[in-house]
């Protein structure tokens, strides 16, 4: 007990003196879409169900992380809303001392039906992936239909107060970059916060990424042509977006640029996979098994010790901008971005 109390007194800091306050938790590797930049059309070999952390196990890891300074949790997938009774996990997390923000990243297909229950359980805000405003193009990018359901999910999130509602648009040259201006116009009439994300490479999208990549600098130049843009604080959250707004509008636009301008020096996050492995960099291969010691009865002190030890191998930065292969990850669905 004395050791555990001492551990609580010192926050989680990596070897480069970056405080780690943000944990992204993948609750499933499965998804109901097959977006071209995210995963293969045929899907992937899914993690066997017995290897997936249950909600109590996830809560136990978050409780340990919260005891040493993690304050923000984001639930991801795959698509997290396909996991049954997700509001029960949200309620478990909301009851953990020290956690002051619970967010959700979703493709939005199931959000309209679940927004109210999630909000009641303690969810604070949502990010919705939306790469196009055209039905046929949505089906082409996602390899599944469903644009109307995503738009209904965004409306439900706004109605339930799950804000700021952020829309994540992966902009791809020759695919959807002609809609940049239409997305920006949305922020003039709605309290949505659109972030244009550079398409990032994984093993199964290398050709697409090479041909479709658009620099955030080009995006900002095109956004600026629509009217005077002013830098504004990032709407509540822990993300790396550079955020701007037009005069007198309710929303914002922003760019996330892992290649053109990486943000590694301010990295404050680690990721937990659905099968209980701690991933220390999105594009790195450092994985720490938390499930095995947890299921062996190690308890909070053991998880805290592993979290602290992991900080010694968290890399300083990724190397994507240098053209190096940085990860064996096949698809973003494996860890939720």
From TrEMBL:
Q: Which CDD domains match?
A: Radical_SAM (cd01335), Twitch_MoaA (cd21117)
Q: What Pfam families does UniProt report for this protein, alphabetically?
A: Mob_synth_C (PF06463), Radical_SAM (PF04055)
Residues annotated for [4Fe-4S] cluster 2 binding in this entry: 264, 267, 281
Signal sequence coordinates: none
Q: Which Gene3D superfamilies match?
A: Aldolase class I (3.20.20.70)
Q: What class of enzyme is it?
A: lyase
The highest taxon in the source lineage is: Bacteria
In what pathway does it function? Cofactor biosynthesis; molybdopterin biosynthesis
> Which annotated residues bind S-adenosyl-L-methionine?
37, 78, 129, 200
The keyword Nucleotide-binding is assigned to this record? yes
Task: Could you list this entry's UniProt keywords, alphabetically sorted.
Answer: 4Fe-4S, GTP-binding, Iron, Iron-sulfur, Lyase, Metal-binding, Molybdenum cofactor biosynthesis, Nucleotide-binding, S-adenosyl-L-methionine
The chemistry this enzyme catalyses reads: GTP + AH2 + S-adenosyl-L-methionine = (8S)-3',8-cyclo-7,8-dihydroguanosine 5'-triphosphate + 5'-deoxyadenosine + L-methionine + A + H(+)
What's the EC number here?
Answer: 4.1.99.22
Regarding protein family, the annotation reads:
Belongs to the radical SAM superfamily. MoaA family.
What name does UniProt use for this protein?
A: GTP 3',8-cyclase
What species does this protein belong to? Vulcanimicrobium alpinum
Lineage of the species this protein comes from: Bacteria, Bacillati, Vulcanimicrobiota, Vulcanimicrobiia, Vulcanimicrobiales
**What gene is this protein a product of?**
moaA
